[in-house]
Amino acid sequence: MKTLSLRNRLLFGIWALLLLTVAPPVVYLTLFLRADFMEEAQHEAFQDLSIATWLLGRHGSFSGPEELDRLLKDYEARTGRRLSYIASGKVIADSSVPYPELANLDDHAARPEIKAAVESGRGLHRRLSASLDREMIYVAESASGIDGIPAGILRLAVPVSEVQAHFNKTASAFLWVLAGTFLLAGLVARFASRPLLETLGSMAGAARELGAGNYERRIRHVPWVELQPLGEAVNTMADNICSRNAELEARRAQLEALFNALHQGVVVLDAQGRIESLNRAAEPLFGSGRYMGQTLLEASMNPELQHAVDMVRRGERRQIRIILEFGPGKAYEVTAAAMQAQEGRMLAVFRDIGEERRLERMRRDFTANVSHELKTPLTSIKGYAEMLLDTEPNEERRREYLETILRNAEHMSRMVSGLLTLARAEHDADGAEPAAAVDIGPIAAEAVTAFRPRAEAKNIELTLDPDVAGMVPGGRDALTEVLSNLLDNALKYTPAGGRVRVRAERRPGRLVVRVEDNGPAVPEADRERIFERFFRSSVPGAPEAKTGGAGLGLAICRRIVKSLGGDIWLESPLDTATDTGAAFCFSLEER
Question: How confident is residue 431, by pLDDT bands cut at 50, 70 and 90?
Fold first, then answer.
C-alpha cells in the first residue's frame, strides 16, 4: 500500500474542506440558479413586451398591417427580440418572418400563450419553435386601441439559448473562481507545509545518522511547539545511546582484554563451524587473522579436531574433550563446547599441556636417574661391605674395599649436595627479594685459583682475563657455585694440553661471563638438553666425563642464573674448521 506524504495529505485535506465548503453553492447553482435565471428572463421578456406595446400605442395611426410588420422588423433589428402581432388567430405581422409568407403560418389561436392572453390579458409558454427550430420563451399581451390595426395579441419571443448562455457564462466564471481557489489552496498548502516538512526532514535525518552510528548528532532547533517534545525525545534517545554505547565499549574492552589475557587459546566458531575470532594465545596455532572464515580442518589440517567440532555442531554432544598433537613437544587438550546463549555458535579452548607432559617426563626421568645414581653406589657399598663381613681379606685388599666404599659414598654425597643446591636455587628463585650487588672479579679469581691445581695436573692452561669485573646481582656463594660448576665442566671435557679461559664481554646494561675451552665440541643432539638435570653429554675423547658427577652441575648453574634475572647458554663449536671448542656463557645485569 502506497503511503501518502504529509504534504499531499495536507493538500488533499484542504481540498476536501473546500469541496465541503463549496458543495452547497454548487448544488444551489445546479438546482436553483438555472430556474432563477429562467424566471428572470421571463420577467425581462414581459418588461420588453410592455415597452413594445407602449411604443405601438405611441406610434400613431398605421396605414395597415404591412407598416406594422416593418416596425416590428426594425424593433427586432435594434433589440434582438422577436415580436409577432396575432389578430383573430392569424399572424398579421412578424419581425422574423417575411411579410408575404405570413399567410402560410398556422393559426395561432390555440397557442397556450395566446389563449392565456385572450383570457387574462397576459400569457406565457416555453416550447420548441416550429419555424425557427429552437426552444423559445413566448410571452403575450393583449393590445387594442392602435389606429389602423385591429385589436389582437402582441407576442414577444426570447430564445432559451440566450438564457442558457448567460447561465453558462455565470457558471463558467464560478468554476474558474473555484479552480483558482483550489490552486491557491494548493500553493498555500505547499508553502505552509515547507517549514514543517523541513523540520521533520531534519529530525528524520538526525534519526538516520543516529542509526548509522553518528551518536553525536543532535537536533538543535525545533520551531514548531508541537514538535519540540519529539525533538527532545530524539536528543534524549541519542544521549542514552551514547551512554549505553560507552558502557558497551568499556565492557567490550574489558572482555577483549580478559579474552586475550587467557593463557589458553580460545577460538570462537560461527554456526557454520568457521573461525570467527581467536585470542592471542591461539594465534601461534592458526596465525593472526590468517584463517579467519575457514573451518578448523582448513586451519589445522587435523580431521580429529574437525570431527569433534562437527559432533558439537550437530548437537550429538554439548561438550567434547580431546588431546591433540600440534608438532614435536606441542600437545593440547582441546575442549569444544556449544555456546548456550547463542544457538549454533561454539567455543574451542586449547590448553597447552606440553609443559605438563615435559614436567611429568622430567619427574619420571628424575626419579629414574636418582634411583639409578643411588642404586649403583649403594649396590657397590653393599657388596664390598658384605665382602668385608664374609671374608677376611688381607690388609691391601681390605684397604681397596674401604676406598671403594668411600668413593661411592662421596659420589652419593656429591649428588645429594647437588640436589640440595638445586632445590635451594629453585626456592631462592621463587622467594624473592632482589639480590644485592657484588663484585664478580674477586669471586672469579678465587674460583680460578681453586681449580688451578687440577688444571696443572692435567697440563691444562687456565687463565682469567682482567676484564672479568663489575657489580652484578647475586650472593658470593651463588656466583661461586656457578663459576665452580662451569670450570669443573670445562676441565672435565678438555684434554691434556688444552686451554680453559674465563673472560667477559659488555653489552648494553649487561655483563656476559664466558668460560671457554678448546676441547671437543658438544654434539648437536646434546646442545638443547645440556642444561637438563642428570643429563651428561657423551663428548668423544673425554673419558673423565664418563666417571664424573650426576649431571646436576649445569642444571644448578641455569637455575641460579635464572633466579638472578640473567640468562645462560652454550656456544659450540668455537672453531668450525676443527669442530672443537665450547663456551658456556651467562649474562647478568651490570649495576
Answer: very low
